[in-house]
Amino acid sequence: MRRFKVPEQRVHAHPAASAEWFRAARLARSLSLATLAWLAVESTLGLAAGLSAHSVALIGWGLAALVEAAGSLIVLWRFTGARTLSPHAEHRARRAIAVSFWLLAPYLIIHVWYDLDVGHRAAPTVLGIVVTAFSLVSMPILGTVKRRLARRLASGATAGEATQNFMCGAMAAGVLAGLWLNTIGWWWVDPMMAVALAVVSIREGTRAWRGHGCCH
C-alpha cells in the first residue's frame, strides 16, 4: 500500500508581530488619544480667539487642529483590533491622512482672499497668544516622538500625523509672529502665514498619498 506524506503547513509569522512592535503600536494609539483631547481644547480656543481678532492665520490654525484631530482618529483606527497587523489598513490610513492634509488648503486660500477683500486686519488677543504659545512648545515634542514611532512601525499614517503636529507648532510660531508684527504695521504677515500653511498642506498631502513620508 502506497503511503502519501502530507506536507507540513508552514505558518508565516507577520514580520511586525513582535512584542516591541506591539508596544510601539499601543504607544502610538495612546498618543493619538491624548492628542485628540488637547486638540479639542486647542481648536475651540483658537477659533474663538481668531474670530474675535479677525486673524485669518489664527482661524486657520484653529481649523488645522481639526485636521490634526482627523489624523489622530485615523491612526487610532489604524492600530485598533485586527487592523493593527493589516497592510491594507495601513495603506487606507495613509491615503486618508493625505486627504486630511488637502482639506485644509482650499479653506485657507478662500479665507485669506475674503479677509483681504473686506479689509480685515488681525488684532492681538491674549487668549490666542496663550494657546498658540503652549502648542509652540508641546507640538514639536509630540511630533518628534510620533516620528520615531513611525520608523519603528513602518507606518506612513503615523508619520503623517507627526508631520501635522510639526505643522501645528510651526503655525503657532507664525501666528504669534504675525500678531506681534501687525502692531507695527506689518499686517501682511498674518495672511502670508496662512497661505504658507496651505502650500505645506498640499505638499505633505501629496507625499503621504505617494507613501514618501514614513522614513524621512
From TrEMBL:
User: Which controlled-vocabulary keywords does the entry list?
Assistant: Cytoplasmic vesicle, Endosome, Membrane, Synapse, Transmembrane, Transmembrane helix, Zinc
Q: What does the UniProt entry say about where the protein is found?
A: Cytoplasmic vesicle, Secretory vesicle, Synaptic vesicle membrane; Early endosome membrane
Q: What GO CC terms are in its UniProt record? A: cytoplasmic vesicle; membrane
Q: Which InterPro entries match?
A: Cation_efflux_TMD_sf, Tmem163
Q: Where are the transmembrane segments?
A: 58-76, 96-114, 126-145, 166-189
> How does this protein sit in the membrane?
Multi-pass membrane protein
| PANTHER family assigned | TRANSMEMBRANE PROTEIN 163 (PTHR31937)
Query: Which family is it part of?
Result: Belongs to the TMEM163 family.
Question: Per its record, how is this protein called by name?
Answer: Membrane protein
Organism of provenance: Nonomuraea glycinis
Q: Output the lineage of the source organism.
A: Bacteria, Bacillati, Actinomycetota, Actinomycetes, Streptosporangiales
